[in-house]
């Protein structure tokens, strides 16, 4: 054994999260980040140099933003693809679990480290934006907004991939990656619109023509939604790596319920109080995405096995027990919770249908989205993968989508649109059938499809209700445990 | 080597470890099937079994890293399911295989875990220094943690497990893959920790290395505890048979010894040897064995060697498994002997 004085690493102070310190120490030493940064800057410098050779400024701007979008929305978030699975496979996740770091702090630290590198990369773009300004053809405000959208998008992509990296199956993660990538497309399109379309100026002018409180409401709303989405993904990931005796679901559901309720109220207010009911889309569009994510999450939670997971609500008596049927961890309460979220979202749809002239008398959009939401319940009743409920949810949806695509192709090839009626049996195939049969006849598929979709929902609720006995058993065990603890404490006190 | 500021509470009125009717299945496979045992404070216990016997699953449940399908585990008086955070503060876990981090030096590795365990500022440095000195990692402080030998990596893992000065250490196959020198170093470290009063559970499928380190041994096979006892009695075979094999040599014709043994109570002749005989004495306690020797000398036998025979632990274990298969030996779910019993 030797003794000599060690130099304490002083690169990060005590106030930094340990996992952030670890990730930053590792991340900034990896060749990946250095090489990506150098390649990125070399390419951008070469690109700007081509302007002097006569390359049109519009082309340079397009390539510049294409590369920036690729880096911030794809390349940098991709580092999260294997983050948690690698920790689990190496056995280091066990070590982290045994420290005082909670599973949420593990994800949060990893996300902050990855996102701060994305911010660093985005910040390094600023000098080039200024340089391009001098070449002309650059509207600095539009570009600043576009960069902000990319940075926020990068944060959300990173959080989503980090959350899904807890899954061991590479195939499943690749599937989820494709899903996340699909979600990034609108952000990329919006960024492209901002930097390349002359209409963007009009949109921004309209934005600045709004009253001050309206501008701030929109800015704060977008930021709040981004923060909430990132938080939700991190909470989703942390619940997947936490020990099964811990409850990481109830708080997540309470916050999700609050966020959905706020968006629903904003949506309904915009429906009934604003001059144009379509303004409710500001609330409806994020509500739609968030509902899908939340439904997928809560209906893929394993049923709890330990009283500790239900103890907090069980101690609150009958009210707590009742709330537990919505908020306890596990897919059974998740079915009821998802049904509530879907109803909240559908209320905004109904509000728009009620107020908006173009929707009036047309039940089509409402029924379409009803099937859309109810599709999330199908995997509760269909089991393809019996060991991994999360994988099962995605496998069932994939099979349904494949069946829907086959149905559409069959209708198209055989020129037999009436076969679209076959799709009414499940919500997803109803959606494909609706698209195949044509706009005028869609009611023939949508109405029976909606009825069958509601049957799926009712069946899922019945199956969930049958598993509520598990919650009752755990609640009794939790209360017995609490009684025993208090008796022991009294004995010690005496 | 102790850290007072992070010392966790421990209920010393109860055994350090209580495992009660523990079950854990993976699908149809019963990995742990009704395991029960308890360990008193300050004991070093070996956990022995073949690969797949259920050692790691039991230890992972004890370390709060897996959940029991049935039964309960209490560490320092705290239930591992109901109070995992309290258990974690009491516990140091050294797994059989674990990864180190890329792009991180040994010092940064220890610094990270010290931060994660709540050490701050100078307190953190002091604790890292203590642990790195103890595990002899100080000369390796600037080495990349994933570029070390197996022995150095095991010392790093032990150092990490000791950072919060745990009262109970669980070590899963700590000596697996180590060269002889690294094994000796590890054994020395474990000996010092045992002298400090830590409760240590060490698993291995190599019995010889456990025999030297442990007060008692727990044998697990197919998810069940098949035997427990101290290494010496296992090697002498006294635990399973209630008899002791003694090798006796005399400075005379062996026939004299045989003749004496035929008339002596509690003694059977196992085998005649060149200079004496192997005798099976129907007793295991030291007093009776000493009494037999005294009688031999009183009866005029010129005894020049008298010693208990010891088998290799591996042979004893295989012999015991054979007896269990034949139904001669029942599985004994009883508490391990405490220090006071000795």
Offer a quick outline of the entry.
With 494 residues, chain A is mainly alpha-helical.
Structural class by SSE content of chain B: alpha/beta
Number of strands of chain B: 14
Strand/helix succession of chain B: EEEHEEHEHHHEHEHEEHHEHEEHEH
Strand content of chain A: under 5%
Can you put this structure into words, describing what you see?
The complex is a heterodimer of chains A (494) and B (342). Chain A is mainly alpha-helical and 494 residues long. Chain A has a domain of 228 residues. Chain A is built from 22 helices and no strands. The two termini of chain A are 49 Å apart. The C terminus of chain B is likely disordered. A six-stranded mixed beta sheet of chain B has the order 6-7-8-3-9-10, with helices on both faces. A four-stranded antiparallel beta sheet of chain B has the order 2-1-4-5, with helices on one face. A four-stranded antiparallel beta sheet of chain B has the order 12-13-11-14, with helices on one face. Chain B is elongated and about 75 Å long. Chain B has two domains: 232 residues, P-loop containing nucleotide triphosphate hydrolases (Rossmann fold, 3-Layer(aba) Sandwich), CATH 3.40.50.300; 69 residues, Alpha-Beta Plaits, CATH 3.30.70. Chain B is of the alpha/beta class and 342 residues long. In chain B, helix 3 crosses helix 4. Chains A and B meet through helix 1 and helix 5 of A and helix 2, helix 3 and helix 4 of B.
Task: Explain the layout of strands and helices.
The complex is a heterodimer of chains A (494) and B (342).
Chain A: H1 18-29, H2 31-49, H3 57-75, H4 83-90, H5 92-97, H6 103-123, H7 126-135, H8 140-164, H9 170-196, H10 199-209, H11 212-241, H12 250-273, H13 281-298, H14 311-314, H15 317-327, H16 331-355, H17 364-374, H18 378-381, H19 389-413, H20 427-437, H21 442-466, H22 468-493
Helix pairs in contact in A: 1-6, 2-3, 3-8, 3-9, 6-8, 6-11, 8-9, 8-11, 11-13, 12-13, 12-16, 13-16, 15-16, 16-17, 16-21, 17-20, 17-21, 19-20, 20-21
Chain B: E1 17-26, E2 29-39, E3 44-48, H1 55-62, E4 70-75, E5 78-79, H2 84-90, E6 91-94, H3 106-116, H4 121-134, H5 150-162, E7 168-172, H6 180-195, E8 199-204, H7 207-213, E9 216-221, E10 224-229, H8 231-236, H9 238-241, E11 244-250, H10 254-263, E12 267-272, E13 276-281, H11 286-298, E14 303-308, H12 313-325
Parallel strand pairs in B: 3-8, 3-9, 6-7, 7-8
Antiparallel strand pairs in B: 1-2, 1-4, 4-5, 9-10, 11-13, 11-14, 12-13
